[in-house]
Design goal:
- With about 230 residues, this protein is of the alpha/beta class.
- Helices cover about 30% and strands about 25% of the residues.
- A 6-stranded mixed sheet has the order 6-7-8-3-9-10, with helices on both faces.
- α5 packs parallel to α6 (about 170-185).
- The radius of gyration is 17 Å and the shape is globular.
- Bound molecules: adenosine-5'-triphosphate and magnesium ion.
- Adenosine-5'-triphosphate binds next to β2 and α1.
Length: about 230
C-alpha cells in the first residue's frame, strides 16, 4: 500500500529531514512512527500526502508513483489519503457539519452525495448530536473527532495522523486511539506519528523508530523504547 525506496528529504540549504528510508506498509496495517523531536517523523508523513516531495528515492501509494506528483494531481491523492493533525485544522467559521461537508464540496461532490456521507462519518466519530456547533464550542477531543470525520469523507485507503493526540489528555487520547483502531478494522491502512509511549505500548502493532532521519528499528508488536 505504501512503498518507499531509498527516500531522502533534504531541506534547503542542507538540513536532513529523512535519509535513505526504505519502508513497505501492507494494506490494512497499522504502523506507529516514533522518535525524538526533529528526527523526521513529520517529514515522512508529509511525503506520504505530498505536502513535500522527496529529494531522492521513490514513493508509491497504492501502486501510484507519487515521487514527482504534480500539484494539480495532489487533490486526487488526498482522496485516497486522509490526513489528521495535532491542531485539528478546522475552519472556525463553519459548523461541525459544514467543516465535513466542505471537504466534499471542494472535491465537487453533489449535494445529494454530501447529504448521504456527512451524517455517516459523523456517526462513526459519534458526533451525530453536535452538527451545528462551531469548533470553539467543542472540546479538544471532539474537535479531533470532527477532523477525523472530515478525513474519512472519501473513504481513504490510508489515514496519516501526525500526533493526533498531542493536545489531548489521556482519556480523550484513548478515545481517539479507539477510533483509529476502528477505522483500521474497517480496512484503512493507518500511519500514526506519535510521541506517546502509553499509546504505542497499548497498540501492540508495528513500530518504526526514527533517529536522525533514519529508521533504526522496525518491530512487529513493538514497544516504545527511547
Ligand atoms: N520546512 C522545513 N525547512 C527546513 N527544515 C525543516 C523543515 N521542516 C522540517 N525541517 C527540519 O527537518 C528535521 C526533521 O523535522 P520533522 O518536522 O520531520 O521532525 P519531527 O520528528 O516531526 O519532530 P517533532 O517530534 O518535533 O514534531 C528537523 O531538523 C527540522 O528542523
Ligand atoms: Mg513532527
Amino acid at each position: 500500500m505504501i512503498l518507499l525506496k531509498n527516500v531522502s528529504k533534504i531541506y534547503p540549504p542542507n538540513v536532513v529531514g529523512i535519509e535513505g528510508i526504505n519502508l513497505h506498509v501492507k494494506p490494512g496495517e497499522f504502523i506507529s512512527i516514533v522518535g525524538r523531536s526533529g528526527t523526521g517523523k513529520s517529514t515522512l508523513a508529509k511525503l506520504l500526502f505530498a505536502e513535500e516531495r522527496p529529494s531522492r528515492g521513490k514513493i508509491e501509494i497504492g501502486g501510484w508513483d507519487i515521487t514527482n506528483i504534480k500539484d494539480h494531481d495532489v487533490p486526487m491523492l488526498r482522496r485516497q489519503i486522509g490526513v489528521v493533525f495535532q491542531d485539528y485544522k478546522l475552519l472556525q467559521k463553519k459548523t461541525v457539519y459544514e467543516n465535513v461537508a466542505f471537504a466534499l464540496q471542494v472535491a465537487g461532490a453533489t449535494a445529494r452525495h454530501i447529504r448521504d456521507v456527512v451524517p455517516l462519518v459523523l456517526n462513526i466519530v459519534n458526533l451525530h448530536d453536535k452538527y451545528d456547533r462551531y469548533p470553539k464550542q467543542l472540546s479538544g477531543g471532539e474537535q479531533q473527532r470532527v477532523a477525523i470525520a472530515r478525513s474519512l469523507v472519501h473513504q481513504p485507503k490510508v489515514l496519516v495522523a501526525d500526533e493526533p493526540t498531542g493536545n489531548l489528555d489521556t482519556l480523550n487520547a484513548r478515545e481517539i486511539m479507539d477510533l483509529l483502531a476502528k477505522i483500521n478494522e474497517f480496512g484503512t491502512t493507518v500511519v500514526l506519528v506519535t510521541h506517546d509511549r502509553d499509546i504505542v505500548n497499548r497498540l501492540r502493532r508495528r513500530v518504526i523508530t526514527l533517529e536522525d532521519g533514519k529508521i533504526v528499528s522496525d518491530v512487529e508488536e513493538g514497544r516504545y523504547k527511547l
